[in-house]
Structures
1.
Amino acid sequence: MKRIVLFLATNLAVMLVLSVVVHLVGADRWLYANGLNVQQLLIFAAIFGMGGAFISLAMSKSIAKWTTGARVIDQPQSSAEAWLLQTVQRLARSANIGMPEVAIYDGPEMNAFATGMSKNKALVAVSSGLLHSMNQDEVEAVLGHEISHVANGDMVTLTLIQGVLNTFVIFLARVVGYVVDNALRGGRDDNRGGAGIGYFFTVMVLEMLFGILASMIVAWFSRYREYRADAGGAHLAGKRKMISALQRLGAAHPSTLPQQMSAFGINGGGVRQLFASHPPIEQRIARLQAAA
């Protein structure tokens, strides 16, 4: 979950910063110097949209380390750390990817994430809570799950999707901003080309709102990829171990609502479910149990 949350938050921040820079250097004024040119605007949006997504991906490892306080294991300081490095190395070799950086961060929750720009330059981090709460078989399955994310190229795939969505966010926000600014000026042609104060604030607000809606689409795709990572974890570590790890996670976060009502609860469904990066634990376990 941290992987997706950090990526989405970084992407949103990068896009807002790029929008401010574009406005300050006068790019929007130049863009609308001769009125609204849809083709020119779409090219501009694609360059900045895809660029913003890949900037977010390039920053993902550094942001993850900084925000979680993760400590990369260069030299194991205990038998547990040595086992962790050896297990990740074995799983990475089985998945045919380069050895990722391995890190531990302090946190009571059972969690882990993988991020990075490529399959051979990734980061796999686990929480201290996960290491203390799970046995080695379950930790191995979680590591297999994260290694599968890397092997499947999930971060790059999500970045491409985010880039396309960024393109439409930038494009639509500026089209609406142009219309709003012209309306505020009463249709007068004062050579500002849709780059007045009304335009600027409209674009900033709409990029934020559209960006949040785009995050829902990224979260939906992330939920779909979680099933693939579960299957990959089961392949690398063993189906029994993967199911056991998910059951341990499910026991740590039990639902407080009856099954019939869970879809209407804050935690189990509703609006919050649209932003969830992972499917419900019960569905993930059922999918694995049904798999051959």
Note: The longest helix spans residues 197-237.
2.
Amino acid sequence: MEATIAAIEVSDLNAFAHLDLDRALSAAGHADVAAPFGGVPIGVKQLEPVRGWPDTHASVPLADQIAPHTSTQVERLVGAGALLVGSTTSSEFGAVNLTRTVLHGVTRNPWSRDRTPGGSSGGSAAAVAGGIVALATASDGGGSIRIPAGFCGLVGLKSTYGRIPRSPDAHYSNLTVTVGCVSRSVRDTARWFDVTSGHDARDPLSLPAAGGWESGLGSNVESLAGARVAFVPDWGGATVSPAMWDVLTDVADSLVATVGLSRVDGADTSLPRMGRAWGLSGAIGMFAQLGERWPACADDLTPEVRYALTASEGKYSAEARADIEQRRADVNEAMARIFDPADGVDFVITASNPDVAFAADGPLPDTFGGIAAGNGNNGRLTFPANFHGCPAISVPAGMVDGLPVGLQIVGRHFAEPDLLELALVLERERPWPLTSISASAPAAR
């Protein structure tokens, strides 16, 4: 804990929005190191409540709010011995995939300070990749675990919807958000879900406890031999950097050969567009959070949130709701076709991001390497798993221009153990750095 505090004091990443170091240090004095996370300092994404901590949603208009309760995920982590260091920075309302807000400024990528760690779990990813903490909570409603994991060289598992309860006071919004972590290793992620998963009656959509994910690691890889996999560079209608795709294809080919997977070329992996429906349904939650503060607070918001609210105002109606639900149904039908046990594939391999991390203070890019990427490109690779509720994992897969790139593997509902198994193969065959080589933090690496 003392090393963590020292790392925070010298860090220039701006990874934390709030610190509770005295309480964390006190807890470290009587930590039960035999517990699953006994004595391990962790960060908590600032969109996740901890009783008594600021509950700002990274937004200036909500700067004075204090959380009245602690999330079930965090309660379970504390019960497993984790030490809560503080809240990690997030994009405002988790609405965009870079972490730069009016309230807390710019959070930076440990691999290059002029690049973003991604969003919305950017502070969590920066803190873990920068060697400040070993683990941090994260959430993923449109890619907010996988995007920063890919940008920062971390493991990021977006689980099956409901795997970890979102209680108490669970709000479902557009039914896309799952909670979890960003970590440095597959084993850490497996242990996280062993500790935090399990049904809570206050979140009736939460699933029964998984359990045994860590102990099962490495024991089921033989059963995956022959599993069918499609390589899809344009997943969700995205355009991926050719340089990145070359790196990812090499890693994916190695995974196929090592495990004995069966690559399926020419599979129909087409999907309907879903970004507009995701954006409009998500804006409802932001309107609700701001309440009567909107529109007077418009100038206090980040440009992306201000634009999203302005563009969405008055657009939500019975007809819009019906369109959103039809788009969700269309996505579900398409995903069921892609993953059909008889005629489809077992896994889709794609990128976690269209390109390497972009500028820390934005704007969102529409080009890479001089090649047009298309507006709205960011997020298309990750939206499908959110809309369908199936699991997907981002695994470190090498470097492009000195920056990490992530390989995303998408599977059927409840296939997290298989995704972790595949990730473990990559971790063993092609180990990745545990923290950024450019991180200034003195914490143990």
Note: Residues 368-375, 440-445 have pLDDT under 50 and may be disordered.
3.
Amino acid sequence: MKSYITHLECTFCYRIHNADVPQSVCEDCGKVLYPRYDLSLAKREFDRNVLQHRPKNMWRYFEMMPVRDERNILTLGEGLTPIFKTERLGKQMGCSNLYLKDEGLNPTASFKARGLSAAVSKAKELGITKIAMPSAGNAAGAMSAYAAKGGMEAHVFMPKDAPEANQKEVLITGGFLNLIDGLINDAGRISKGVAREKGLFDISTLQEPYRVEGKKTMGYEIAEQMGWNLPDAIIYPTGGGTGIVGMWKAFQEMEELGWIGNKRPKMFCVQSENCAPIVKALHDGSEFADIWINARTVAAGIRVPAAIGDYLILRSIRESGGDGVTVSDDDLLYQMTQVASLEGIFVCPEGGAITAALAQLLDKNILTEDEKILLLNTGSGLKYLELV
């Protein structure tokens, strides 16, 4: 197998960057870099039918991944999480074609395993041995786990009130845990300063080019698992937003490969009513999102006051014809119990949030009962026992 990666491209000013040396953000404008691939060559050589013989993890799409040498892959079996038809939940919600993709069945029990497997593998390939990042929770445990797998040094910066399970994940996998007063953006500021001081490579969300490539495999899997026909709508909890933009990138790549047509799902981002910078920007018609002051919610993964990829998230949602929805903590906690009691799936708080958002979208007739709707649960509720 060979990767068809050719270069990195700025998603804002489109400057080209070298994919074979460590990179962070665009050298000109400071915006997000995306890996780009020779899709015309891949279309001739990479047939989707070969996937049936591939390992059942996200690296089955190796040709569309940024690691050039398979020996540099650090995998714990991430990806190819199941999609369940949730008939009992659907009946209660009033929709007949409801599905849920359960990312809680990934290693480290969340979708963060995808992005960190890709980012830490590429860091290893580029000769990086010491990495750092801020995290609201699940990303920290994932980074520390993959760093352990690769024999690398991991430095994590987390808010003091981050879930205890995530803190323990970092410690037991040998990471250096730094607890700080404040939110994820405060942790990010401190993480960057320490990284500069100690020569650590920063793999913060969308501030290096490769975490998005792990997240985009959700899009590839959704297409493959649904017979190369995308759902009508995807409802997704949004903090840093890498999942939404990653899937949107995957859909574009697959169309150019000839694997799918031009149909796209409507993408709905879900945020807390007490931390909703993306939803506010969507409804204000803004290109960028303002930082959210006094952000608070029990769902740590969506307590993100500002996202470097805000313009990418907004662009993807608008191009899809989707929208943004806010939910209360009471509603998301209630929906956690509903999903668990009806389907036997213990979703994370963010998974409760997307179900609460679905109720709103159906009630307002933004989505209809016969549309094929996919809920994307990003992690396991077992990490949040204190909330139940």
Note: The mean pLDDT is 96.
4.
Amino acid sequence: MIPEASTPGPADSAAPAWYCVRSQPKHEHIAAGHLTGGVGVEVYLPRIRFRRATRRGPVWFNEPLFPGYLFARFDLVRQLRQVHHARGVRGVVHFGNHCPAIPEEAIRQLQSAVGADAVRVLEPSLAPGDEVTIASGPFAGLLAVVSRVMPGRERVAILLEFLGRQTSVELSRELLIQPGNPARHVFR
């Protein structure tokens, strides 16, 4: 159901404003492309980029910061129907017949926190004592403990339980993954 673009009030004025748009599952980028190109509205889709261990080693992933949602700036009265029917869009977030506008300042703060290119890289912050998993190579899948971080060379010294004793090994940061989900990573 498309909410009616009721008589413009303070939040529903004829001037373009930011609104939260719900996308179809895993179609945020498709919705953003069609809203920008087909409908001609300004879109903001903040994303995060992070590394995750896979069977073939560490791989970089890009995901929306708000899965299933993006922000679009448009004239609610004139463009609601076009936005609602754009490919990849499930609808504009609404409460009854009211589509709440997002304050311009909130979008600006989000843009300054995420960055100009709308992608925030999440790097794992390694510190001595952290547990890590080796993602690839001969020690793939083994758990280790970080003993020393060498930032200049992007290498890490780890303690590894191997053949019944602890062995110190230096590896590239690219080969180490902190256990858990990307939410355990911190902003760089």
Note: Helices lie at 28-39, 76-84, 104-114.
